[in-house]
Known about the structure:
The complex is a heterotetramer, with two copies of chain A (258 residues) and two copies of chain C (300 residues).
Chain A: E1 2-15, E2 18-24, E3 37-41, E4 52-55, E5 58-60, E6 65-71, H1 75-82, E7 88-95, E8 107-113, H2 117-129, E9 135-140, E10 156-161, E11 168-169, H3 172-178, E12 187-192, H4 195-208, E13 212-215, E14 231-233, E15 240-242, E16 249-251
Parallel strand pairs in A: 8-9, 8-12, 9-10, 10-11, 12-13
Antiparallel strand pairs in A: 1-2, 1-7, 2-6, 3-4, 3-7, 5-6, 13-16, 14-15
Chain C: E1 5-7, E2 10-12, E3 16-18, E4 40-42, E5 59-62, E6 65-68, H1 76-90, E7 95-99, H2 104-114, E8 122-126, H3 143-154, E9 160-164, H4 172-181, E10 186-189, E11 193-196, E12 198-199, E13 204-205, E14 211-215, H5 220-233, E15 238-241, H6 247-255, E16 260-263, H7 265-269, H8 273-288
Parallel strand pairs in C: 3-4, 3-16, 4-7, 7-8, 8-9, 9-10, 10-15, 15-16
Antiparallel strand pairs in C: 1-2, 5-6, 6-14, 11-14, 12-13
Helix pairs in contact in C: 3-4, 4-5, 6-8
Amino acid sequence: MKNFGSSILxxxxxxxxxxxxxxxxxxxxxxxxxxxxxTVKVTENPAxxxxxxxxxxxxxxxxxxxxxxxxxxxxxxxxxxxxxINSSIEVLSPLGNNFTLPExxxxxxxxxxxIGLGPVLYLARELDKNGFSPRLVVGGRTESFLPDLSNLKxxxxxxxxxxxxxxxxxxAVDYLKSLDWKELPSxxxxxxxxxxxxxxxxxxxxxxxxxxxxxxxxxxxxxxGACMGCAIEVIGPEQYARxxxxxxxxxxxxxxxx
Amino acid sequence: MKNFGSSILxxxxxxxxxxxxxxxxxxxxxxxxxxxxxTVKVTENPAxxxxxxxxxxxxxxxxxxxxxxxxxxxxxxxxxxxxxINSSIEVLSPLGNNFTLPExxxxxxxxxxxIGLGPVLYLARELDKNGFSPRLVVGGRTESFLPDLSNLKxxxxxxxxxxxxxxxxxxAVDYLKSLDWKELPSxxxxxxxxxxxxxxxxxxxxxxxxxxxxxxxxxxxxxxGACMGCAIEVIGPEQYARxxxxxxxxxxxxxxxx
Amino acid sequence: MDLTVKIRNKTLPNPVxxxxxxxxxxxEYAQLxxxxxxxxxxxxxxxxxxxxxxxxxxLVETPAGMINSIGLANVxxxxxxxxxxxxxxxxxxxxxxxxAGSTEEEYASVISRVDSQNAIWAYEVNxxxxxxxxxxMAFGTDPVQVERLTKTLRKLTDKAIIxxxxxxxxxxxxxxxxxxxxxxxxxxxxxxVMGMVVDINSRKPAIPAISGGLSGPAIRPVGxxxxxxxxxxxxxxxxxxxxxxxxxxxxxYLLAGAxxxxxxxxxxxxxxxxxxxxxxxxxxxxxxxxxxxEDFHGHF
Amino acid sequence: MDLTVKIRNKTLPNPVxxxxxxxxxxxEYAQLxxxxxxxxxxxxxxxxxxxxxxxxxxLVETPAGMINSIGLANVxxxxxxxxxxxxxxxxxxxxxxxxAGSTEEEYASVISRVDSQNAIWAYEVNxxxxxxxxxxMAFGTDPVQVERLTKTLRKLTDKAIIxxxxxxxxxxxxxxxxxxxxxxxxxxxxxxVMGMVVDINSRKPAIPAISGGLSGPAIRPVGxxxxxxxxxxxxxxxxxxxxxxxxxxxxxYLLAGAxxxxxxxxxxxxxxxxxxxxxxxxxxxxxxxxxxxEDFHGHF
Lengths: 258, 258, 300, 300
Ligand SMILES: Cc1cc2nc3c(=O)[nH]c(=O)nc-3n(C[C@H](O)[C@H](O)[C@H](O)COP(=O)(O)OP(=O)(O)OC[C@H]3O[C@@H](n4cnc5c(N)ncnc54)[C@H](O)[C@@H]3O)c2cc1C
Ligand SMILES: Cc1cc2nc3c(=O)[nH]c(=O)nc-3n(C[C@H](O)[C@H](O)[C@H](O)COP(=O)(O)OP(=O)(O)OC[C@H]3O[C@@H](n4cnc5c(N)ncnc54)[C@H](O)[C@@H]3O)c2cc1C
Ligand SMILES: Cc1cc2nc3c(=O)[nH]c(=O)nc-3n(C[C@H](O)[C@H](O)[C@H](O)COP(=O)(O)O)c2cc1C
Ligand SMILES: Cc1cc2nc3c(=O)[nH]c(=O)nc-3n(C[C@H](O)[C@H](O)[C@H](O)COP(=O)(O)O)c2cc1C
Ligand code: FES
Ligand code: FES
């Protein structure tokens, strides 16, 4: 974990309203794992004040570059979009925990929606590299929300759109339900995206009795576990867990879904 | 007077730490006169909050473009320097009063220091165009503070630097004092720059018994005369005058110099 | 859609006003925004005698805000009647006169002397002023003084009396209740928050008065909280202000319990903020299916 | 150059501390900043019983600031002694325990139960908490309660007692005097300013507790003004905080009368803000020819 000045090496639009940014990574710093995130200080002016958290969407140990996918939403992401190549930003990373790797014989099912694409994509690529055959399911409202993803070697990518304008017509979870689950005796589910999607993934995992991890979101201030601001409700002896420290990845059975 | 969206047509460094910006001007809007200023809204974020005032340094009625010269000082000017050509800014102008034109037979003596260059340069060019022979005296600490100015047709430019690295060694007022005042029976003084320079110009004008106008500065909030924030002390029935409304140009005899 | 806001026996055409001290007497902004579209124009504070205002400089910027130390710079009642009233008479929007003083008698004297003017729609009483007879603490910090002052002024006029509260108190709800008990027709809140900036180069306060009034987006959460607390305990209309730049900010105030709002510092940033905010409120109401301003209330 | 700050019978190594609730127990920041360089580390508030903290979400950003509604989330005295003290014992910087409670007895109980710990350098008493026995108004809003609470706690320990004041009062100087009269060794000011944000999409308050504590640069002018007023009327050291991001901000506080400062929200923006601020203060002192912290005082 380190707070460092990073150079923007590249950034481009990958879907309407979504951008991918590639930044330099200090050689001395540990590589981020899929599921981990960074926080960005977007401006020296005091507004927007707080650093903004983004999941890593990729990492290249050889080139020492990391990438993130972000949606244009408010002041911070709008500012980020104006940053030119070679300009620098202040980054604090790697933060939080990471996705658990599947067992050797498990089929990894990965579900991404909206801003959840980054961490899931990173996980898919890592799993693919490590000999797994991840099935990456990407959901969006229409075709225009679906980024063009580089193909995986062993894995596969499945697009779903609510209006059927691309790929499967329906949600990512609808797609998963439509699979032939008999040929998926030992699957493991990973998801990141809107709360409703995560909850549906959790329910599916319960139904199919498979392990399931979700990457959660909450407003953050410190990002390092110091302020208790990013708490979410969990089941267990402690009522709350910190998304930035105990998370962002949680066993979906630990979350108190509401 | 209008608040309008303007395009940045050009901007470049003209001396170390000083930049000139050229912006588009609405066709329907009155032309700004030398001495008048504009205020710029630099960001949609609430910090820096207040609009920033800058004097016009030039205006082209044919092309409908205006320019300003600004010094990099703090958050607003730093942001302005990052604005790319064709990006837009919100401008409120023309604001304030303007310099009084000299009488036909008067020699206009113009004194500029630091951020006072803009309005004085605009005045010099206008006077030059109108058949006067303005003598523009530009003072700086060293050569590197002195911008390269396009030559005037009838007028002349005189550089002064405190360290003698360019032109006359000494202040702009020292230079004026060194002139042969017998050949300047009817001169008129205009100045804009640091308070000390303005005060020295005022004293010189008193000594030589010539008319003298100074362009003043004060922190501003509204820029249109509504808030009473930009008051300065003046001599007369009212204790204070608003720089944005009664000014920024004042007869130097009206100012309560301190 | 009904945008009117009832105060005493009259109605404001819409809930968006411009705040005292930030809009002069309107004339300065006439070229920049449509004055006839204003829900109300609150004038700069008026005192009996002319006041030159505070020493210089009077302004300093702060993070997402500014501090002003204008003082009660104004021309006094006499010149107000001859120099300002003629212009105000030409305006079609309601003009609310902001009234200030150092003693109860001064406030009373202002109102008595101007009350016959038809150009004045109502009074907004600025009680952030120090009471010279009570050790210089602001009128607005003591419920007893607030109730008494309100009662005194209430007797002098048939126009609405709006008491404008300072946020620099332990319990603003208590002050609002005192104003209502004294007969106020509405509450404006908030005035500026006490703040201070030190110039680290000169090692002096940035403004000679040492501390001044903080305004702008920085204090918006303070204003919204004040409106929420005040609107729980009074039955008269609450006019919310403090840090409103955009229509979204204004909607926050309305949802928190305000019946109307004012834009102060926001005018400096966006000269036609009032028109933009009003249009934004109208669009929001359309989308939400709100018919009237009260529909903003009671959601939590 | 002497950077130390004397409080009671001990000295802080330098004036730059990190504020309660924003720095955990230090462990979370150990990789990001040099903890041994801290003038003081103020821990998250400790209460007798564990508290889970407030409902979610707990944070919302505001212009140049943020509102938090963490509540007094902490593990309680028992687990503090077993889980937190061992780490705190490894730190070389002074650790100041922030103490909270709902009754005078609760505050007293915390101090009694932890006072033997050498890892605790002093106590900072958070009196922004509502007093359940006095109708829920915060302890820190009533000078009588503040003096009594300070007296009670003063008797229980030989360690320094720092009373941390809330800015949500009419006259903070009065509260500071009450703390001094009760035997406080220093004053910290300010805690957060009451603020509120409404989510205009859900039409609910952004945080379930409705209002929360505003912190960050937005409130810096409020904190500087409070330090100025308090430092005029007490003889004990004043520790200034509220909105410090940079060394320039810290110098403003010192010039306004603070003997030391704390960085709260600033840590979130710049994890090693404390080191940067300290270095900036040192450079400023060199340039100004200041030999000691008191040289910041008396310039106006
Ligand atoms: C662990 C984690 C990982 C994330 N990964 C990604 C990602 O890979 N790609 C992506 O596009 N977005 C991601 N987000 C969300 C991202 O942080 C917000 O989109 C971003 O902060 C928006 O900032 P803004 O100023 O543009 O918009 P704003 O208008 O400020 O905010 C829009 C929304 O973003 C969220 N948000 C704002 N500030 C914060 C904050 N300080 N902490 C957390 N959430 C905030 C809030 O829900 C807010 O309603 C992640 C969030 C978390 C907590
Ligand atoms: C009538 C007038 C004409 C001006 N013309 C020019 C010009 O032609 N070129 C130029 O470079 N500068 C000019 N200035 C000064 C210019 O406004 C400041 O340099 C600018 O505001 C700095 O902003 P900043 O955020 O970069 O720096 P900051 O760090 O915010 O400020 C640096 C200094 O600029 C001044 N300043 C800041 N904000 C304001 C404000 N709202 N109103 C007035 N002064 C402010 C203050 O003296 C401050 O100490 C003029 C000022 C006035 C009043
Ligand atoms: C420059 C300036 C002058 C002000 N003068 C007055 C005044 O004369 N009377 C008054 O009641 N309030 C005065 N105020 C307070 C505003 O009306 C308003 O209550 C406050 O600024 C908060 O709103 P804002 O954040 O929208 O500016 C003044 C504010 C500013 C910024
Ligand atoms: C997330 C958060 C938690 C806080 N928790 C406490 C606390 O437990 N006890 C306390 O006395 N102050 C607490 N505070 C207040 C800070 O210590 C500080 O007084 C306030 O935030 C103002 O300083 P700042 O603007 O530098 O943050 C908390 C502040 C924040 C932002
Ligand atoms: S953001 Fe501070 S604990 Fe998670
Ligand atoms: S800046 Fe408002 S009156 Fe001049």
